[in-house]
Amino acid sequence: MEKHELVIVGGSAGGIQAAICAQKHHGLKDILVIRMEEKVLVPCGIPYIFGTLGAVSKNIIPDKILGEAGLKIGEVVAIDRNNKTVKLKSGEQIGYNKLVLATGSSPLQPPIPGIDKENVWFAWKNTDYLERLAEVINGTGDIVVIGGGFIGLEFADECRKRGHKVTVVELLEYCLQLVCNTELCIRAEEALRSNSIEIITGDAVKSIDGTGRAESVTLQSGKQIKCDLVVVGIGVRPNVQLAENAGLEIGVTGGIKVDEFQRTNDSSIFAVGDCAEKYSFFNGAPTPLRLASIATREGKIAAANLFQPQWRNVGTIGVFSTVLGNTAIAVAGLTEAKACEMGYDIIVGEAEAASKHPGTMPEAHPMRVRLAFCRRSGKIVGGCACCTHTVGEVANIIAAAIVNGMTMEQIAMFPMGTHPWLTASPLAYQITDAASNALHKAKNIASVS
Amino acid sequence: MEKHELVIVGGSAGGIQAAICAQKHHGLKDILVIRMEEKVLVPCGIPYIFGTLGAVSKNIIPDKILGEAGLKIGEVVAIDRNNKTVKLKSGEQIGYNKLVLATGSSPLQPPIPGIDKENVWFAWKNTDYLERLAEVINGTGDIVVIGGGFIGLEFADECRKRGHKVTVVELLEYCLQLVCNTELCIRAEEALRSNSIEIITGDAVKSIDGTGRAESVTLQSGKQIKCDLVVVGIGVRPNVQLAENAGLEIGVTGGIKVDEFQRTNDSSIFAVGDCAEKYSFFNGAPTPLRLASIATREGKIAAANLFQPQWRNVGTIGVFSTVLGNTAIAVAGLTEAKACEMGYDIIVGEAEAASKHPGTMPEAHPMRVRLAFCRRSGKIVGGCACCTHTVGEVANIIAAAIVNGMTMEQIAMFPMGTHPWLTASPLAYQITDAASNALHKAKNIASVS
């Protein structure tokens, strides 16, 4: 029987990163990655297949990234923990010393009447499926996107670029509400609406109607939207059947339970990425965040801990960004609503300035930062930035501040660098100024109470 | 006699920021800023006057930034510390309770024969002077720039954009050598050379020749360069005469000596910005870095400490960035040469990946990061990034890592966010991957020794 020092089940972000880091950290050569897909998609690139990139083939992670790890295409259907083997659908058995589960997630399929119609599509991470969707979309007309999260909005924006009339339906009051402060939600919606995308919020889909094919979508409000195609992007559920069948514990958000070293309740088995339970950096509680950037981090951590616990996963912060129309938005850490819900007494500081300096530099645009701090400790708990294309890295500065527990004083004094072409002025650098603004408010509150 | 709670001498970055923060932090209304200039230039914007911006008037900091602080145009010629007054050239005396000196710096004028010719210019922060230079440059031909530091190179690049033939002469082996790793120096030089700027390094200017006007520059090597105008940008000296005359102590790099709260040896007098001595974040030793971003930080710190020590200046890291041609470069912390000189045993990690992901996204370009770590502590001591326009903020992420003493393990596990339009792939994010690369090297060294 074939046997490997390390077997990784799943070949997307988390699995790949585990394979890379196991080679780097342990010099492990005897690694086998088993995955179902012939080719692996760049997960965050999926919406761009339908607009900017124009083809599935432009959104593939090349297998050479796996280095010297072996690769087998197949479906693992069972884990025998006693004999430390996995069984493939083909019947083949493969032994492991250490096993990393990176089985990912699948699109949620809400129980809406008509959801099974042939022209209702999901963001399956499968090249064949998405190639068919790309083909179908090319010849189609109006599109309804169910779900105003990142995937839904990016998908809507890309289809709009190809000339489709697009309507987004979101259950909550705002799109992106679970991950962004209201201000950013509004900016995101405005960016899309200004490009003629219709956005309906605070309304649910009651049914997808039509004879055979979906021809319209009916909302709870009674509103009907005609369409030629429906795309559903309301979230994912972790793929944990394999783990569950093997007796591995499952967490409250539905992921495989892991400790701070990414170990499951079987010390030879690790879980990373969308299939693994996440825990909040802030209070250690389970949190439903699922992102490729989180998956790769967990892959690294698991690889470092294979033979002895070395790296502790201090928890998930949640760092997101996107570009809708020409509006970039980014967030790191807790939204203000979430922070309040968790019991924080927060103080919010904000600052806006031209993205270049002086503001007369070409293509200088307003750039805003909002930071939320715990009033008692002074520590940053979250922040967001918009609307220029540096905000992805600005969110990473905020993430660095969060992970290091920086206070409003420390951030106000942060020794940032600035340059006319690349940043705001040193007199108006948004991150430090937002911290100063929070300090100022904290002082005023303190002097009143 | 007029008297103010706070008098600030100098109205550029450091003075302005002190005025703003004294209002914010102490609710101080009784502030007077005394400066020599009618209008204040954006210091880092000066080179752009001569190309991108096209006019001095587009590079002015509006006085409204001073808020409720008073403003007086005049030259302070003496400080009477016993009576706590400053004396203006006009003879007027003004009393202070607290005094902030933000007198800035002046261009160094090397003792080169011919340096005093009328068409030899310097980067004086003076609107009239620069307006005259802008006028003269418009009608001129070939330009020699003496000094291959940031100001010199940016000036050269801007003049090139206006169609001038430009030659840069740098004494050291590479341009930017004192602040950048060799790799970045080479990229900067390549960016300029590819735009037909001639760069001569490792050669000094022996004389500036011509009858009356500068007509050519003769180098130590014997080489002669014909020119119609010379610009000198070899650095600055702090303006400390006023402080020195008042008996304030001067540091070894020529700045006004300050403690960690920006106080001079007179506890009523603070110094900030280019006129103040800087101390290294790494070992507390005096360091000759002078930047507007450092000045504004010191302005904030001084303002917070006016009435009692509150904020400690933990020292200067040094965060720089620029764009030459279309090549952006950025650095934070120690160069590798400087770190070695200071006694660090360093390990360098590097990583390169497309700036967007997948690499098939429009306008994805290679982006590189190099990070240097202290081998013993594992802590980051410096880093640099090139060549895309997000590197200014990437250097600030590196600065955040430095100021928080992050180790290679912590940076390798850093919970960055990624997005196709805004950053590298989560599988190839340069900062985390450079840290992983350093870890890998550290491990190999450890296993050998």
> Percent range for helical residues of chain A?
10-25%
CATH topology of the largest domain in chain A: FAD/NAD(P)-binding domain
- Name the CATH superfamily classification of the largest domain in chain A: FAD/NAD(P)-binding domain
**What oligomeric state best describes the polypeptide chains here?**
homodimer
**Care to count the β-strands of chain A?**
26
The coarse silhouette of chain A is globular
Largest β-sheet summary of chain A: 7 strands, mixed
Rounded mean pLDDT score of chain A: 96
- CATH architecture classification name of the largest domain in chain A: 3-Layer(bba) Sandwich
Calculate the terminal CA-CA distance of chain A, rounded to whole Å.
Answer: 72 Å
Per CATH, the class of the largest domain in chain A reads Alpha Beta
Structural class of chain A: alpha/beta
Poorly predicted regions of chain A are none
Overview of the structural elements:
The structure is a homodimer of 449-residue chains. With 449 residues, chain A is an alpha/beta fold. Chain A folds into 3 domains: 2-105 and 237-304, FAD/NAD(P)-binding domain (3-Layer(bba) Sandwich), CATH 3.50.50; 109-234, 3-Layer(bba) Sandwich (FAD/NAD(P)-binding domain); 326-448, Enolase-like, domain 1 (2-Layer Sandwich). Chain A has 10 helices and 26 strands. Chain A has helices at 13-26, 127-138, 150-161, 182-193, 241-245, 292-304, 336-341, 391-403, 408-412, 430-448; strands spanning 2-9, 31-35, 40-41, 60-61, 70-73, 76-80, 85-88, 93-101, 105-107, 120-122, 143-146, 166-170, 198-201, 205-209, 216-219, 224-226, 229-232, 236-238, 269-271, 278-279, 286-287, 319-324, 327-333, 346-354, 366-374, 380-387. In chain A, strands 1, 2, 5, 6, 7, 8 and 19 form a 7-stranded mixed sheet that branches. A 5-stranded parallel sheet of chain A has the order 10-17-11-12-13, with helices on one face. In chain A, strands 22-23-26-25-24 form a 5-stranded antiparallel sheet, with helices on both faces. In chain A, helix 1 runs parallel beside helix 6 (292-304).
